[in-house]
Each structure stands twice: as C-alpha cells, then as structure tokens.
Design goal:
5-stranded parallel sheet, about 400 residues, FAD/NAD(P)-binding domain, alpha/beta, 25 strands, 11 helices
C-alpha cells in the first residue's frame, strides 16, 4: 500500500487540505498528525465568545468524527513531529515512531511570541493560542480583579474587551505610539482606542515592561520601563506570534519568516506543500511576499494545496480579508491597507456604523468596515474584480457601488 499523504498540523489548513485533496480526486491514504489531543477546531472564538460562555465547546470542532471516517482520513492526535527526512520520505514523531510518506503537507501554524523578561514564567502569566490556553484563561478570569494585557494587537484588544465586559479592571500596554500598528489604519486604531477607553480600559501607549513580579510564585504586578508598577491578578501576553518552521528548515526547505511557497502552495521540494499562518507566499494584491495570520488565508491556501496534491493547478489568488469582534463592534477588513495615500469614509463613525475606503494612486486597495457587513462583502467583490470607485463615490452614500460590478 502507498504511504500516501501525511499532513503535519491540526487546525483549519490541515483539515482543508485533506478535504480538498479528496474532493480533487486524491485517492491515496491521508494521515493528519496533530500535537493537540482534539480534532481540528475553530480558533477565533477562543479570544471572544468562548471566554464568556456564549460560544459552546461543542461548536468548536471544524468537522465531526464522521467526516474523517467517511473520507478515509486518519487523524493521529497527541503526536508531535520532531524530525523530517525528505530524502527517505520519513516523518519522526516524539518517542521515535516514524511515518512514511509519498507526499507531505506542512500546516504547522504559529506559536505566541515569548516575552523574555524576569517573571514571565510566574503563575498567572498567560498566552492565548490553543484550546488548552483558552480553558486556562477562562478558569482564571472569574477570580481575577485586575488584568494587564501586554500588547495592543487584535488578540490583546479582543481579550481586553472580554475582560472589561466581565467587569474587570483592565490595562493594555503597547510599546508603539498607537494600537494595531500592523493591522489597521491610524483612523481605525484611534476609533477603537476611544471605544476601549469609553468602556473603562486604560491604554498606555509608548510603554515598555521591565519585569513581572510575583509572590510565592504567583503574579502580583507588572513593572514598567519607567519604574511604575501596576497591580495584576492576571497578565495576558499578546505581542504577536512566531511561525513554526523549525521542522521545515531543518529538512532544508526554504524559510524566511515563514515557509516559502509558490502560488500553488508548493515548497522548494515539489513533493511538499504548505498552507496557513506558517507560510509566506506571493500575492496578486501585494508587491512583496506575504505571511498572513487569518482563517481566510488558511482555508483558501489549503484548498489550493489540496488541489496541487491531486495534480490540479489552481493558483491561490483570493483577496485577503480578516475580522475582529470587540464589544458590540464587528470590524471586517478586506485588502491590504498599508501604503495607501488617500481614504474616504462612508457612513458615520459617531454612530459606529461606517467603512473607510483606502486608495493608492487612485485605485481602491482596502476597506475597513465597522458594523457594515454589506460594505465588506461588496468590497471583497470589488477588489477581486479590480473595480474601483473614486474617493468621492466611496464617501457618497447616494452612489450605488454595485453599479461598478455591473459595469
């Protein structure tokens, strides 16, 4: 029997590669090797509704066990991949077990960026990436009164909104001069900062951390770069992620802040594909290689990878899009905002229902929408079709943007 396909990783991309390979006609055995003890599950709810109890654990799995059984996909849970021999076609697991493969897919994802400071290992200093992380955090939130979030990115702000909604005293520390410097425009960042402050969250920008102090092994305070100390029952570190490329790099695959792949999700070894947060890929919507941390990227790139494994060439050219839920706000983003030279606002920022259209050299490159889902969906179509309103049309609500698609 053929050794078939082995997929390393256990989230969106792993599940989707297996599903898409089967849909495209791949008939050989498929095995998913996941370090986690549970079937692939949704991650976005972990920093949102899962912590408040609005999102039930039973709804987390991406697919039921029957899906894997019916599609002849074996899922090996609680198995850590530790060695990769591309020449011999062997994957070594912790404990020495080896799996042979003819084709390989790497969906190793990312891990939280560590905070190399004294006290970072104290009880009560937490990260959020996995279901186990979320369970620990949910258990500790109830008894925590004061919470310090280190990092003003999406995860940090989503956690801050959950904690503030639960009535906790929350402080967010951000080293840069604004929130979400990597993710959104200054306009959206300023809007969200005002929302958090209105909900009682203290934002301290241009602020560094010197150490985390504890008592009897338990966190008690966070000492800032200027010597000020903040009381903390719980510290949440959310300063970004690191792509898990060590396995690929040791095997000789090209890596550069991510595992390098082409438009068909192929690595520098034609037998190996990769997808998801761990990859860096070319995009028709950027002038440089991208590494995207999003469900959209994981799923769409995995569809391409699955087709490639079955011998079909379907390039990955989907418009990037993202979302974040904070309080009653749904922020939806499409396109890449960096490098824009003009913007136009549609709707009302005061009423918290608006979209900001971003332009570069007169062409639409991105849209950020707050509580205007229709604008977001239309924006995905406009960017995919390379249709651009003028800034004046974008800001004029009497102008029907749908007509641009009809044209």
């Amino acid at each position: 029997m053929s050794d078939g396909l082995v997929i390393v990783g256990g989230s969106y991309a792993a599940m989707q590669i297996a599903a898409s390979a089967r849909e495209a006609g791949y008939a050989e055995p498929i095995r998913i090797v996941s370090e986690e003890p549970v079937l692939p599950y949704q991650r976005p709810p972990l920093s949102k509704g899962y912590l408040t109890g609005k999102f039930m654990p039973a709804a987390l799995p991406l697919r039921a066990e029957a899906f894997y059984r019916d599609n002849r996909i074996d899922v090996l849970l609680g198995k850590r991949a530790e060695g990769l021999d591309l020449t011999g076609g062997r994957l070594t697991l912790a404990g020495g077990e080896q799996l042979g493969f003819e084709r390989l897919a790497l969906t190793t994802g990312t891990r939280p960026r560590p905070l190399p400071l004294p006290g970072a290992d104290l009880d009560g200093v937490l990260f959020l990436r996995s279901l186990a992380d979320a369970d620990r955090l949910r258990e500790r939130l109830g008894s925590a009164g004061s919470i310090v979030v280190i990092g003003g990115g999406f995860i940090g702000l989503e956690l801050a909104s959950v904690a503030a909604t639960l009535g906790k005293s929350v402080t967010v520390l951000e080293a840069q001069d604004r929130l979400l410097a990597r993710g959104v425009s200054p306009q959206v960042a300023g809007f969200l900062a005002d929302i958090h402050r209105a909900r009682g969250v203290t934002l301290r920008l241009r602020t560094t951390v010197r150490e985390i102090r504890g008592d009897n092994g338990r966190v008690r305070s966070v000492v800032l770069g200027d010597g000020d100390a903040l009381a903390a029952d719980l510290v949440l570190i959310a300063i970004g992620v690191v792509p898990n490329v060590e396995l690929a790099a040791q095997a000789g695959l090209a890596c550069q802040d991510g595992l390098l792949v082409d438009r068909f999700a192929r690595t520098t070894d034609p037998r190996v594909v990769a997808a998801g947060d761990c990859t860096r890929h070319p995009s028709a919507f950027a002038e440089q290689l991208l590494r995207l941390e999003s469900v959209q990227n994981a799923l769409d790139q995995a569809k391409t990878a699955g087709a490639t494994l079955a011998g079909l060439e379907k390039p990955y050219d989907t418009v990037p899009w993202f979302w974040s839920d904070q309080y009653e706000l749904k922020l939806q983003m499409v396109g890449l905002v960096h490098g824009h030279d003009r913007h136009a606002v549609r709707g009302s920022m005061e009423q918290r229902r608006f979209s900001i259209f971003y332009f570069r050299a007169g062409e639409l490159v991105a849209i950020d929408s707050v509580n205007r889902a229709a604008d977001h969906m239309l924006g995905r179509k406009l960017l995919a079709a390379r249709r651009s309103p003028s800034p004046e049309q974008a800001s004029d609500e009497s102008f029907n943007l749908q007509t641009l698609l009809a044209a």
